[in-house]
Structure formats: structure tokens, C-alpha cells
From TrEMBL:
Pfam entry (one): CHU_C
Domain of life where this protein originates: Bacteria
Source organism of the structure: Euzebyella saccharophila
UniProt protein name: T9SS type B sorting domain-containing protein
Entry-linked InterPro entries: Ig-like_fold, T9SS_type_B
Amino acid sequence: MEIRKLRYHQLKIMLFAFVVLVSINLNGQTCSSLSTPINGSVDVDVDSPIRWRAIPNIIGYVVSLGTTPGGGEILNRRSSGQQNFYNPEVGLPADTQIYVTIGYFKAGQDFTTCNIESFRTVAVTEVPECTALASPLDNSANIAAEVELVWDYAPTATGYFLSIGTSEDGNEILNNVDVGNKLSYESPDGLPADTEIFVKVTPYNEIGEAAFCATESFQTTSAVINCGPYFDYRTGTSINLGPEITFPDVVGFCLRTNSTTVVSEDQADGHRWYALEADGSERVISTSIFAEIEGPGMYRYEAFNNITQSTTTVECSNSKIFHVFSSEIPIVETIKESRRNGERRIEVKTKGAGTYEYALNSEDGPYQDSPVFENISNDFQRIFVRDKNGCGIAETSVQRQLSTEDFPKFFTPNGDGVHDYWQYKTPDREGEIVIVSIRIFNRYGNLLFMLDPKIKGWDGTYQGRPLPESDYWYRAIASNGDEIKGHFTLKR
């Protein structure tokens, strides 16, 4: 029995070991390690690729290279996808301890970071070899003037000098400029179009620079500038390199003048103005921001921007046709006043060849298109009529209208010196109405007094006798024909 139990226990141990081994085989190792160069290597070439042992079933690797343990000074958490290698584009620094950190993602697991490993690169004792253009290739043609120059990595190089010219020894575009430790360059203004371009790339390191590097060349094509409008898919916007036109469709030509000056407020590099002739031809009348228009007719206005790409400059323009018609300062014929639902209404009637707008009491407006003003106060009003085409402003006015508010509501003729007389008081303000007569009546309509507006006022008597407290009525007539009726109270 004991032997059987021992064998059963040994069988369980063997089965557990088998499951562990199968699990390791199915899931693969839990982390990776360097395979090229191996951990602890020395004198590693600066252009050596970095390889590590593959891990099954991973989503992707992340690699960092630094000069300190766990650092990313050279390469900081660069994804290499599912490839278990990385080739440093511009090489590794010479005679330097390089620290490598490999990490990876697996489905359903947290990100895993493997142990840091390192190696030391070889000390550089010689200058680098020359390199060559990778794009465009030497002697190629039909190259866009906005091309990016790309060259191959020169092992041990830590930077590159770049010369660009339009002759084999030329450098008028770029004169032996240190572009740093990178493998490409694009001129911010582009290269000359339809020109043979000569390029010389010279690698260098701490020892010195490569000697006798060859000059390569390629032929650019003519620059094509799209003025637009076109849709830019990168920004999601419509692009138009020509200026925006805000000049109006119609302009008035002021009669009784020799010319009318029009001015553009559009932001542009240049402007042109044309008169359209009866035979369909155009005649240039100005090349500045303003033009002198000599009469009514059809004209064309053009604004343009000078767009330069790859030393090629073109005009990107926009234009519009506008109509010039006769206009003039308005003439105010009549001002019609009326009442509607008790509210004062003023209507201005004008004549003239222009298009007019109207404002009350201020030459600066606001202006309205309608010549009718509703719900206007009884005060004196100034009226301004302006030609929309700038030919001038006409001004007129309307007198203040009489109102019951202009007359006292009561008076107390008791000799105390306060409100002893009833009289219309002329306010001290512009446009005041002149009263020519005031008649006072009792409640039965009998005329009691003819009040001269120039005297002190009515003292509440009739034929020398004081009248009793009561309400009395009046009718006032102004010099402009206005008539107002109302009543007031006599108090003793």
C-alpha cells in the first residue's frame, strides 16, 4: 500500500512538471534579451543593428536606447511593431556605453519591461566615408522644386555639411551648412524651378570630415502654383491664394462733378482698374489702390497677390465687375407731419438721381432707408438725408409741435406772488413755437379773455371781477398754424 501511495505521489509531481513545460512552450518565454550585440559586448560597430530574441504572441515591441541605465537619450520608447530588431537611422555614438531597454505588449496583459542590458561601441579613429543621395537620385529629371533631399547614412558620421547650387561648384543656395546629424533637408523656399541643381553632402565626425565627396545633380521641373480655390484635405479648409474682394457692386457718380474717386480697402499686393468699352475691350485707368472714375458705365476692379514658390512668382488674382451710375446730393421737397393713433409722424419727400437714406438729429446717424419716422416726440427735429453713394447730405428741420403739456394745469390768483397768472411760457430751446393768440372760455363756451402771449398772463378776472374756482378752457394758435385745445383749473 505504501509503495502505491509513493508511486501515485511521484506521478502527480511528474504531471505537474509536464503541465509547466507545456505552458512554457505554449506561452513562450516571459521576457527577451539581446541577441545582437549580446549583453556586455565591447567594440560594437556604431552602425550595428539592435536585435533581441522574439517572444511569441506579442502585439508589439517598444525599444529605448540611452547612455544611462533605463535612459532614452538616443531613442525614447520607439515602437518597432512586431519586428524584433531596430536599425539606428543615424548610427550610435562612438566609444559609448549603450543601454537597451526592451518592452512589449501582450493581449490581456499589462505592458512588460525587460531587464536593462548594455554594450559598448567601438572608438572611432577615422573620418567617415562619403555618402550619396537616396532621393532624388543622381542625374534624375522632372523633380519637383519643393523636393526633400535625402541621403544615406555614413557609418561613424555625427553630422553632415550640405552645399546646394546651380553649377557643379556652386553654393549660392546653401553654402556648406552644417545640417546636424540628420539624413534629409528641404529648402524652406523651395529650389529654383526648371533648373539643374547640384548637391554635395559631406559627412563628418569628431575626427574630421570626409574628403573628396562627389557632387551629384538632378533637374527640377517648372513650378506649378495653384492659386485656388481648392480644398486642403490636411486642414479641411478651402484655400484661395488670391485676395478677398470686398469692393461694392455699384458705385454712384456724383453729378456736377468732373470725376469720382473710388478706393479699395482690400488687403492685396497690387490693384488694377479697367473701364469696359462698348466694343468689349478693357482700358486700364489705374494701377493703385484708388481710381478716378470719369463717368457712369461698367468697370472692372482686380486685386492680386504675388505668390512665390521655388523662385517662381505668379500673380493670384480675384476681380469683379461693378456698375457706376449717376447720383447726386438730395433735395428735400417737403416735410409732411401727421398724427396716427395720437403719435406724431414725419414723412420726408426728396428728389434727385441718387439713392438716399434718412436720420434724425445726428448727421452721423443711425440712418434708415425709409423716409418715414413714426412715434416722434413733439420736440424740434433735425432731419438729415444722405446719398448712399457719397455725393452729399442735405439737412432740414421741423418745428416743435404744440402740446397740452406746454400749458399750466392750474393757477392760483390770490396775490401771494406764486402762480398768480396763467400764461404759455416759451421754453428756452431750439425750434420753439411762437404762439400768436390764446382764447380762454368758460364751461359754456363763452369767450372770457383774449390773451396776448407777450403780457404777463390772465389774472382770473372777467370785466374786472374775479371769477370763481372752476375749470376753464383755452384754444392756442401758433405761427405755423398749429392749434391746440385744453383746459386748466382756477383755484382760490
